[in-house]
Fold each of these.
Amino acid sequence: MALKARALYNFQSENKEEISIQENEELVIFSENSLDGWLQGQNSRGETGLFPASYVEILHSQLGSNYTDYSSSPAGSPSHDSSLYTNPSNPGISYQGSFEDDDDDDWDDWDDACTVVETQSAPGTNGHPSPSLQYPAAYGHHQHTDYRPKPALERQDSMSSSKRGSVVGRNLNRFSCFVRSGVEAFILGDVPLMSKIAETYCIEMGSKGPQWRASPHPFICSVEDPTKQTKFKGIKSYISYKLTPSNINSPVYRRYKHFDWLYNRLLHKFTVISVPHLPEKQATGRFEEDFIEKRKRRLILWMDHMTSHPVLSQYEGFQHFLCCRDEKQWKLGKRRAEKDEMVGASFLLTIQIPTEHQDLQDVEDRVDAFKAFSKKMDDSVLQLTNVASELVRKHVGGFRKEFQKLGNAFQAISHSFHMDPPYSSDALNNAISHTGKTYETVGEMFAEQPKNDLFLMLDTLSLYQGLLSNFPDIIHLQKGAFAKVKESQRMSDEGRMDQEEADGIRKRCRVVGFALQAEMNHFHERRVADFKRMMQSYLKQQIIFYQRVSQQLEKTLRMYDNL
């Protein structure tokens, strides 16, 4: 039965099986059941095809009934940038469902009896679990239990709450990322302290403010040799990637679904960190050479950001992913990561902050400035992505065709000069004919050039679209924490709260504030390095390209010298 739905985000189709949808567009869904994270339906223009389930909400006509929301939040849409290299403007989570056959098999060297679906709870900010599941003492137990095999992250929010400890009022919107991430419970002191915390992440004061303490053992990791492999006597096919961490210099081989598992563990654990989005999955054509090469390039960028992050690079699950070669140990490590208790709001308990005093108003002003900056950067990144994508299309299509037309016109001139032999000049005719062939060659050079310059630019822009899309929810956590501090101080001033309890809320707010500022500083450091490299590479490749074009033209010009 067809259902009505509304698009939550823009989605640009990549191939003929998919259709484009616009934010707030009314859609018709042919079936409410998603297949590997995709729905089939019709947009307002009458086009029929596939689009991500997490980009839409299905509207039920019954009065008071809940709608099916595959997105879980504005941060719940998958990272799916298209062949046009465009992303939705606000995708936070990028759990990418697909029709890839390797998502349906038996996980190879993984534990077949345990999947991400079985071990993950509902998502909050950046994919973290609902606080109703993490801290049952602080929240009610009413939860939705309708699990689907894909996507693994489903909304299971509690609609009720019971006060525990603090008398500061809780947010009425139980679906806000501040609540679902568990940060509200942390600020109000409802996150239980662990008797033993094995991991700690330190924040130091640097020249530009709080910053994550550098990893004591920095390393890099290469991503190479995407290789098509098969199993079940060729029934199943997949691509494996060779990963070689510099700290052990011993390669491991991982499939994309292994990356996907790791990515969801990262979202589940790190509340206030902008986890880089994985490159997108694709409904069809996943074994095509261009798609495999594009995915490899983007996995290299993703891995570079992971290894450069002082916190993410030290995560035990990430180290296990990069280093484990033994199948038995692999399963044990996978289970250990999935049973990790220091996730979501509990992760905040592992952060050690400096003793330096920071005025909360100054912090709020700094966060507001970063919010305005990130919004402007996101807009400009999207603008450059659209311009560069259009330029790619022109290189591959328009420019090549125009140069071919010019070459054919020169060839026609040469052929016409052969029509009257007494006055024909073979040298001139050959030179003009060669000029036509030269411009045809130049057209092919234009068509191939994006692989050398624009693709790297678009890869970098895509990565930053994902990183920037994470920050609105992370900033919202800080805003929510600020609000609780102000409310608690007002209540303390009115004598309705002990000052000690208000001081505890302020102290825990400092943890969130320091963590966000450290993440902001890391983002700026990477931004400077990445965009410097991107621009240098683009300009160098442009110079090389036009030098090659110039050489072709100069060679052709010399043919006219001795006529």
Amino acid sequence: AQDSCSEHCGELLSTCSCQVTCQSLGNCCPDYEEFCLQISPYSGSLMGGKAFLLENTAFNTSSVLTCRFKQTIETRGYIAKDGKAHCISPLLYETGFIPFKVSVDDGLSFPYSGTWLSVHHSKVSDEEKCTLVNETKWQYYGTPNTYGNLTLTWTHQALAETQVNIEVWGYHETGDSYSENWSAEWKYLYTLAREIPNTGKLTFTPVPAEGNYSTWDFGILRITPSSFSDGQSNIPSLWSNEHALAWHLGKDFRNDPSAWATAKCMEWDRKEEKLPNFKEEIIDCPCTLAQARADTGRFHTDYGCDIEKGSVCTYHPGAVHCVRAIQASPQYAAGQQCCYDSRGTQILTHDSTGGSTPDRGHDWGSPPFMKPPRIPGFSHWLYDVISFYYCCLWSDNCQFYMKRRPSSDCRTYRPPRAASAFGDPHFFTFDGLNFTFNGLGEYMLVESDLTSLRVQGRTQQGRLPSGTGAQGTGLSAVAMQENNSDVIEVRYSEDLNLEVLLNQKVLNFSEQTWMDLKGLFLYSTLDQNITVMFSSGSGVEIRGNGGFLSLTVLLPEKFMNHTQGLFGVMNGNTEDEYTFRNKTTMPIHASPQQLFEFGANWAVENGSSLFTYDTEFLLNSFYYGEKHNASFLPVFFPYEDPADPLVGEMVSLCDSDPFCRFDVLTTRSLQVGNSTRLSHQNHRLLVEHLEPVISCGWLDPPINGTKNGTNYLLGSTISFTCNQGYELTGSKERTCQASGAWSGDTPSC
């Protein structure tokens, strides 16, 4: 009898497979598609309430459907008239892939399984939410000149019901900060409008909420079908954006918003005084915009101020771009933000209200989530955003906020080191050496004993325009893992599409381009630049380029003396770059033939491969075969034939770039040559942008005087003047010196 995938998804059974690779290998159990669920849509907000379809299943309409997430959270599913089954996503306090199981016998057995992607509430498309029309008005309602009607709109087709209720929910955290009993809760407060027609629009004049509800100042709206009871959890819902609930605050707020907010700001300031100082453990900012945009393993664009989207920086006037530290700080899960002006220099809160402010709660949350201060989005709102409303937006006390959230400068920032491989593979090591290695097989590009980081590359033979194999190879797949993180592989499929695999399963970026995974974050741009950001701060960037992959690995300074592989030993010394597995080295002026031996020595050892072998071709070529194909010999010195018409075109394209020339000659393709030229240029620029920059740190103006200048990097000069009637002693000008110290003496007036 054939085995069944019922309760066995992800396993290899004796007669057939229930693993994700079974479809491309053609060895699935007959009921694989029925029990190992594909769902649509595959993602939604962590707030829950979204219906998703279970594909390839047909149940009779009388079945009672139960969906169980993470072994513990159950939601009631439903079966539509066409027999198609749907689950409702639950309210979660975490992001990432969440396993779920489905029962059709009222919870007796759960034979069906799948995964749901829970995402940060602000990463969900606007169509999935109800919209606070003129959101600023909702959040400033009751402050001077802000009153009248408010309007809420929604996509009425999203809820299949003629009447809906609109509810107000509040978020709070209870227990003692940074203790075991600290916990987070979304709580139903009251119903704002009941059994109203589902037209997609509601306009109302807000009145202060009754009783205790008016003390809740941070929350969200939820629209549900009227057939459910008030505040019922995990039912079909449309949530609004989370927001400051100015519009429902009590009479004391409306009578004197500024005094109310000032009192709240002072209370927040007193609380902050007692909390641990998270600023000591967050990473310092990059010194320049170029560094910030190059350090992609540790910093990512802040959506609220993005140079590529026109620099609309509402909260940071004067900035053109901000970045956030990707990883939360180790102990307190705090976040860092860094903003830059049009000259590319950092803007500090000491000098300008447009400066960047660090966060007690990282906006994106941090693993293992579930408890404060690690709740995605909402912990951050409670400590860093609503307090900004109290002190800076609803009252004029911003100096209190800035005192608790001052910008970090860049005195302790150390840029990462970069290594790259591209084209007919040319390797640039962390210490700046370059060589060409044209082996055919699977190789260890870099491994580190510091975090068990492994990045492996697979090469395949290039193709000549005629279709025959070229005498050179290029990267066709890269796989990576750190400690016990998820395994990510980026590869060209056989029809030359770029695919990203998560633990052997091909990912789909149609709904989400950013994913919070185990031990890493993954980001894909629209033109398929893939960035993997590991929790150690190491980053891997992969781009598809003219049929070959180009790859860059960025490692922070702590990896010094902890790397080996084709990218060499990262220690600032090129002499030991070509170190073999047995720790012997080869001189740096080795011939291409000798380097071929060095490369072959770093072939992936069987059993330690991170690659997915899900086709006959991959199994035969790389799994059963040799990891380094010793019978493939590349061309080491391509010949430039003056009579060859391609040579003239090559010279005008490549100029003096030796890698571009090499690749045009070995692949006979100007397109491959051009991709190589651009990748080489990108690598050079990246290394240039990651050069260390010396900063002498912020200087304050003298009391009763002013200073001129806000650039604190090497060579910058700051000048000081005194107010009328005061005389200056000390230095009139101070210059940032190579030692990292300012010249001269502290001025006073």
Amino acid sequence: GVKLLLNGLCSNTTVKSLDLKGNNLRIIGAEALGKLLRQNQSIRSLILEWNSLGVWEEGFSFFCQGLAANSFLQRLDLRNNQINHQGAGELAVALKQNASLQEMDLRWNNIGLLGGRALLNCLHSNKTLRKLELAGNNVPSDILKAVEQALDHNQDRQTILSETHSRTRVLSKEVLSLKNEKAKQFLDLMDTIDKQREEIARSSRMSTARVRQLQEALDEQHSIMNSLKAKLQMTEAALALSEQKVHNLGELLSAMKQEQTSVAERHLKELQQQKQEGVDREGKLFRELSAVSEKNLLLRNQVDELEKKCKVQQDQLFQVKQDLTNTTAELKLRAVQAEERIEVEKRKFKQSLEDMECLRLKEVDRMTQHVEASERSLQERIQRLEAMRIALEEELSKVRAAALTERGQAEEELIKVRNQARLEEQQRLEHLQEKLRLMTESRDEAQNCYLRQKQVVSEVQAKANQLSLHADGLRRQIEELQQDLNIKEQEKVTEVNKVKVELQEQIGHLQAERTAQEGLREKIAALERQLKALSSNHREALLDKEGEISMLLERLRMKEAEISRIREEEAQRASFLQNAIMAYVQGSPLGPHNPRK
């Protein structure tokens, strides 16, 4: 019935706890249990109390093989199963291969000294077993203490592993969030830079269109000048009025020149201020980079100091190991002579080990606190760098807004100048029309003054030539202004590119710092692993040496028992000899002659 039940449970996926207490399972039941443990993946708790599985060695070995192949069982109860030291050895072999069992109850069996040693040795390779009950098995107290220490070590190791896993998850999440944020910020910067390029291209197009309009207006003015020259030739009487108008035009041109020179000076001053601001920003960035590099050097020095401390601790542990080997050799030599000395040395050795463990725990706590402080400082530095980057972005936005406002002001000034020129030209045309009316009325009077005013006409022509030359000079000045505008735009583009390059360099530095931080964290994790490995090796060595001490004590006890047995045998022999001698004396011929006498 048990075989059928267990075969049915091999393919079951819902049962998590199985209680078979007090069912008198035999070889067939043990083999079925081994098969169940190999195939089932859902049972987490198995109770087999009061079943005498240890009596059937073959079936129990098959059960242990199934336990070794299982990777899902967490609790096993084997109380009162008559398990001897051989069964405990098979259980130890199974526990070396098992990686899921956490609790096992072996109370009230016949494990003995050899079985306790086998279970203690298996705990060196098994790192998952947390609880092992061995009461009522005739196991020495030294082995029980060693088993408890190994189980405590397994619990500490699992807690440390869980903490490290949680920390690594949190750190990985933070790193991913930082990467995503920086990627978003970089994309935003690229978008803003592309928008600025588009705005600069639009402004350049608008400026070229405006320059073309100005050129067309100048061409129109030249055509008007030519028409005025023809009208001057046609109208000789209006020369005096034309001279006044020419003087007025000269004054307006001088005013325009002055305005252009003032505008050029303003642009130059603004460019110088922008250059100075760029130089100041570069200086600040270099200072910040130098400060960050110094902080990285300090962190590296701290890591080197930590590595040196770890090496010193390793040397100390090596010296402690050498001392332990020397003491064990002395104990082996002096074990036969005096048990009291061994106990005293054991106590001293245990006290020194406890002191060393306390010191090691204090150093580990101090190292963890130092590492947490360094991580906090690094996080604060990252936040400061991000704040600096945000400030730089705000300054860039301010500079762009200022440039846009300046462009808008320049465009408004150009529009105002154009409107003023158009109004003046309209006024001049109206005056000229009025003058033509007056000239038609004064033709008769001008014919008499024709000869006199020929000379004046020649002078006016010379002045007109001068005006044409002056207009050519104005054209050249406009072309130079256009070139200056183009140069300024190119300088702005170069400055934007420089800012981009600087931001990319800052991003590269931040990424390098992040990689350095990851390297530091990896080094810290490696150091912690080394410390854990050293502590585990130290504990294993202590357990081995305590086992050797217990072996020596057992040998001493065995020898004392043999000596006492020999003494008893000798006393028995002496008593037998005495009895034999007394019987011989009583049975000798001297005995019967005495009564006859």
Amino acid sequence: MEEREGEVRWDGLCSRDPAARAAALDTIGQAVFRRSETIAPVAAVPLTRAADGLLAPAARDGLSEMLVRLLMLSKRCPFPDVREKSEEILGGVQELGIRIPRPLGHGPSRFIPEKEMIQVGNEDAVMHTLFADSFATLGRLDNVTLVMVFHPQYLESFLKTQHYLLQMDGPLPLHYRHYIGIMAAARHQCSYLVNLHVNDFLHVGGDPKWLNGLENAPQKLQNLGELNKMLAHRPWLITKEHIEQLLKTEENSWSLAELIHAVVLLTQYHSLASFTFGCGISPEIDFEGGHTFRPPSVSNYCICDITNGYHGVDEIHASPTGSIPCFSLLFKSTESVCEVEALMEKMKQLQECRDEEEASQEEMATRFEREKRESMFVCSSEDEESAPTRDVSRHFEDTSYGYKDFSRHGMHVPTFRVQDYSWEDHGYSLVNRLYPDVGQLLDEKFHIAYNLTYNTMAMHKDVDTSMLRRAIWNYIHCMFGIRYDDYDYGEINQLLDRSFKVYIKTVVCTPEKTTKRMYDSFWRQFEHSEKVHVNLLLVEARMQAELLYALRAITRYMT
């Protein structure tokens, strides 16, 4: 990705050739030091002297953005030479008496301790290849990638799909693709994704005026707003008439191929917003909220500890006892172990019941309707504290439009029977026909998420988890009114407890309300990698549910 900041070009750092990276680093280093040496003595104008005696770059001098970019590279670049040289440049700037930035927070996720995640530089060969591919393509190793890498097979499929949708040949121009990503992420107030794509939108030549609000974008994109909000919050309301309005609006009309591309992007970013909130993804280091130029508090440790990488707070949080008495921890641990054992026992009993008798079709239909009705009453507390986000409402219209349970207030929506319209038999071929290869990429991603297993559950090995994975997937589709005739929905209540259902429904339907308390409260004895796996199931099941409603409406329009 080619970029300029003044005379500085950063794209050479994405090269696979060490010599090209070295040349780019030399050029960047020279530019940074030239600017630092020019402004450092003139403290009164571009710099302000702080209590620690160092000079803090003012935002307008351009140096601060370069230093923040170097900080990100020193922590998040998969190429060791780039990490080391970036750190060296930052150290040199600090020696000139200019304060350098430091990261805020504790790693890529607010929910997962940094020490339990794969550290850049310590990854195995497979993960390094994924990291290098991602960095070479995007110019960064983002926090979503660093959390998804718990599951490399899925990450590879996800990155391949992202690359195709955003950068390869397709019906929509590049800046439209990123703008649609912004529109989709904004529906869930996901400032993390909005910030990423604002950055990318500008890099591919997008008009900055569009970012002042949807009303400043072309009418063609504004027309997509209605479909965006229905897909995000109430996809069961989409009809062939909505599709017709987009395809037959004279000069601002969409072609079928363009609309398929847009629908896939909208559903991809609605579901990615669910992953972002569901895993507590932190702001990128070089974005707002990811770094600070303020010195750290030194009340608990020496300033030399900071330069040696010790930040105190992590170690305090990681303390085995903290402020909780040992007996309390022991009780919680024992209770959690019992939770795992009980879940495994239920799976065993359900399998035995399956083998002994099969419910009638009428009973199966009744159980689906009961589960669909009960899912309406699964909701998180209204006073839950949401993750902080800046206002992104200017990127979409009708801010009051949100998720509504489809059976409330007497409104009835017919059940969507997968036997009548499915991804495998209908959606896949429609997408592949109008946007070649994308159907195949999505199909692979769905299958990997659904079938992914390491045959483990918490501390137990050699466990068949297929029943549990199917219950999670089908519960999400049930919330969207989608029914599988051959599935016994009675299993869901046996396998998914209330705290887990609250987490699932929040992440899928109102992800911006997800909290760390919700994340911590389900499957307490399970590994973080297993909870990330749950989020992959939520992402793909949600995306497929939205796609089914949109593609069925497109099919009905075409026939």
